Amino acid sequence: MRKTIIAGNWKMFKTTSEAIELANGLQRELYKLEETVDILLCPPFTALSEVSEVITGSNIKLGAQNVYWKDEGAFTGEISPLMLKDLGCAFVIIGHSERRQFFGETNESVNNKAKAALGHGLTPIICVGETLQEREAGSTFKVLEDHVQNGLKGIEESAAAAMVIAYEPVWAIGTGKTATSQQAQEAHEYIRGLLAKMYGQEAAAQVRIQYGGSVKPENISELMAQPDVDGALVGGASLKVETFAQIVKKAAEVKK
Ligand code: 13P
User: Fold this and answer.
1) d(Cα 138, Cα 132) in Å, to the nearest integer?
2) DSSP code for 122
3) Is 256 a residue whose pLDDT tops 70?
4) pTM assigned to the model
5) Which of 22, 94, 183, 209 is a plausible cystine mate for 179, CB 3.0–4.6 Å?
């Protein structure tokens, strides 16, 4: 059984005081939830330390939105896996489409980052997904194959089961256009098939695959009902206590 994982990617939103307020509000709403769901907050770097303090000892975990692959050194502006561990992070998002699109992230850098994260006991959430143009050209599966095979190159089977993959169709991010639950299932099933080819059925069956792209309280239940959808990576709707808490609670209700 794969444990449901619902993550809030706060992107470049929330000052430190706003982040503390949001984390406190979520903790109040979600503390009663049994540990059937991994609940994860990914604030900006500047708020990691404070959010970490707020959620320490609770059922909410901490993740970062990016990482560099070296432990330390002259890399101005970068943050190392050691630094994230030190702040209490357990997860890190890698290769988000916004990073690929605006900051030159490639499969190669995703691969370096994923290996570094795993090497330090951080769970990487590796983002994959096609643009609208790619979907319309019929190359969705080709893009997924490229992202998965090259992003995970050289990662051992023993480490693979610990990873999380996030399928985020770029055309569904921040647009209000959610992939239908069938489109999500089809992509997730395909990704699991790719993992099975790389690592065998058993390991592939353990990898959690999240869906991301305009997830909201209204569509989470249907998405979660799909056999290969193991959770969600939530952007806009994770910025308010009410909507994110509802998404977590509804996801927890869906039993598979
Ligand atoms: P939205 O939920 O705002 O569409 O963002 C999705 C996303 O990019 C999460 O990483």
Assistant:
1) 10
2) P
3) no
4) 0.97
5) 183
Instruction: Check which CATH number belongs to the domain holding 226 and give it.
Output: 3.20.20.70
What is the distance of C-alpha 242 from the center of its chain? 20
Tens digits of residue pLDDT in 170-223: 999 988 888 899 999 999 999 999 999 999 999 999 999 999 999 999 999 999
Q: Could you read off the pLDDT of 44-72 as tens digits, one per residue?
A: 999 999 999 999 999 999 999 999 999 99
User: Which letter, b or e, does each residue of 34-54 get, where b requires 16 or more Cβ atoms within 10 Å of its Cβ?
Assistant: eeebbbbbbbbeebbebbbeb
**What does the alpha-carbon distance between residue 234 and residue 99 come to, in Å, rounded to a whole number?**
16
Find the 6 Cα to ligand 1 centroid distance in Å.
Answer: 12
Q: Among candidates 69, 64, 111, 65, which has minimal Cα distance to 84?
A: 64
Residue to probe by mutation, ligand 1, list 93, 173, 216, 220, most atoms within 8 Å of CB: 173
CA dist., res. 178 & res. 184, Å (int): 9
63 in ligand 1 pocket by Cβ < 6 Å? no
- Rounded CA-CA distance 174/214 in Å is 6
Domain limits at 166? Answer: 4-254
Percent of the chain topping pLDDT 90? 92
Q: Is 168 a catalytic residue?
A: yes
Q: Which residue among the candidates 157, 168, 189, 253 is catalytic per the annotation?
A: 168
Instruction: Please state the domain count of the chain.
Output: 1
